[in-house]
Amino acid sequence: MEVGFSFDLSRCSGCMACVVACMDQNDIPADGRSFREVVRLEQGEHPSARIFHVSMACFHCVDAPCVQVCPKGAIFREKSTGVVVVNEDFCIGCRSCAMACPFGAPRFYPGEKMTKCNLCIDRISHGMEPACVHTCTTRALGFGPLKELSEQKTKKAAGRMLGAFLCDTKPE
């Protein structure tokens, strides 16, 4: 059963709790970059300007470019969950994965080999949510089987479309 993250843009407040939880879970030093980042997006101009926050981590791509370019096979897709993981023992630090990833997920800390979000595989193997999802105070981040996440998003989108349609129609 392949698993993954979901994200609801309308719920994220930009509090950064997910970033801190990721850093804590993965023992990332305070001066390092978390595997999860929150990006601030601004839209419009005063007086109707809006700010959105997007929480992003590795997308664990189906055809992950980092997996395809790794010359030592250090990066691979875990068969049962679909999580893209790294075996640091095989990593030679060539950084081809970082050059291939369009999302900047691979991280190289001084003196270390490549590391990245692994969906908190140790936590999920014990039935827990990834640290970032567990800590998200607004429940903007979700986690679960990809099929269920897709079905939930479809239902939510259909509900919004139906609501918009019903609001636009006027009774005769």
Descriptive report:
- By secondary structure, this protein is α+β, with helices and mostly antiparallel strands.
- The chain has a domain at 58-116: 2-Layer Sandwich (Alpha-Beta Plaits).
- The protein contains 6 helices and 6 strands, in the order βαββαββαααβα.
- The chain has helices at residues 17-25, 65-69, 96-100, 121-124, 131-135, 146-168, and strands at residues 3-7, 37-43, 50-56, 75-77, 84-86, 141-145.
- The protein has a two-stranded antiparallel ribbon with strand order 1-6.
- The longest helix is centred in the C-terminal third of the chain and has 23 residues, at 146-168.
- The model has no long low-confidence stretch (mean pLDDT 90).
Record keyword descriptors for this entry.
single chain, 172 residues, alpha+beta, Alpha-Beta Plaits, two-stranded antiparallel sheet, 6 helices, 6 strands, 17% strand
